């Protein structure tokens, strides 16, 4: 089971060639097991990036997310109370970005690896990452 960081989700759906070989292998394996997880905070993050015109999607954000939700091998993980608390109490040092903290907490709560290219997350020793 793996959690896709926000950019990894965009790339997985829109342009899988942007994923590293290791990330592709992990996503393909998780896909077969229906173990691809995405934190719901990533929906917020993508919507924000689209609103700020930092990301352009082929569809309107609502339709793009709906198509992702319809994929049978993707599971969206809501930001539960326990994930929210875990995100606040992650061991330091970790940068304060709330979306990243919630994504890390989601991976830890799910016992999953995190697929990310984000150097700050790759260097964080308390979550297992793949890139």
> Roughly what percent helix?
40-55%
The total of beta strands comes to 5
Order of helices and strands: EHHEHHEHHEHE
Rg result = 14 Å
Return the CATH class: Alpha Beta
Largest sheet: 5 strands, parallel
- Under CATH, the topology can be stated as Rossmann fold
Category from helices, strands and their pairing: alpha/beta
Give a description of the structure.
The chain starts with a strand and ends with a strand. It has 131 residues and is of the alpha/beta class. The protein has one domain: Rossmann fold, CATH 3.40.50.1010. Helices cover 51% and strands 12% of the residues. The longest helix is centred in the C-terminal third of the chain and has 13 residues, at 98-110. It is globular and about 40 Å long. It has helices at residues 6-14, 21-32, 41-51, 61-70, 81-88, 98-110, 119-122, and strands at 2-4, 36-39, 74-77, 113-115, 129-130. It is built from seven helices and five strands, in the order βααβααβααβαβ. Helix 5 packs across helix 6 (98-110). It has a five-stranded parallel β-sheet with strand order 3-2-1-4-5, with helices on both faces.
Which structural traits does this protein have?
131 residues; Rossmann fold; five-stranded parallel β-sheet; 51% helix; 12% strand
Q: How would you concisely characterize the structure shown here?
A:
The protein has one domain (6-130): 5'-nuclease (Rossmann fold, 3-Layer(aba) Sandwich), CATH 3.40.50.1010. Helices cover 51% and strands 12% of the residues.
Write the layout of secondary structure elements.
Elements: E1 2-4, H1 6-14, H2 21-32, E2 36-39, H3 41-51, H4 61-70, E3 74-77, H5 81-88, H6 98-110, E4 113-115, H7 119-122, E5 129-130
Parallel strand pairs: 1-2, 1-4, 2-3, 4-5
Helix pairs in contact: 5-6
